[in-house]
Amino acid sequence: MQTLHHSLVMNRRVRVLANHLATLLPKNQPLTGLDVGCGSGEIAVAVNALRPNAKLEGVDVLVRPKTAIPVRQFDGKTLPYPDNSFDFVMVVDVLHHTHDPKAVLAECTRVAKQAVLIKDHCCNSWFDEIRLRFMDWVGNRSYGVALPYHYLSSRGWNAIFGEIGWFPKVMQRRLNLYPVPFRYLFDRNLHFVAKLTN
User: What is the reported pTM?
Assistant: First the structure.
């Protein structure tokens, strides 16, 4: 199942997410970026291919033996950088793996000068939760990633944005991450990409 998931979902996911994220970054301005929970760094490399002006590095709780970008280990709570260290921070499908998404997001805003780019989920019903749990389990179980299944509703996200004082300047809800027919079950209303600014 893991090989099938990688061929049908992961390769497309990296390409599609990189396109969405890159559109949120300026084309010509030199930028430094941090990918929080970067995994192998594939998405950061794909973003950099579309925005060569952006230099990215990563942090992760579990640093893999092979990564496509430089990756530092962190404790999952405090980013090992001073305030305003990066022009932007990316946090892609990470916050729902944490026990305190508000605290982790606040850390992202602390080290970001201009923007935080988020890709995560919205869970507004019991059926949303069933689908999200299934996707998480299939996509992450083989990597040893923590699966607390901590999904926020649209109202929950808005509450966090208000508490940290960074708000979506751009919010995209139709991402088309999956091919037909999987798109109809696993894509619609479950995902978003947002650019937060203060």
Answer: 0.88
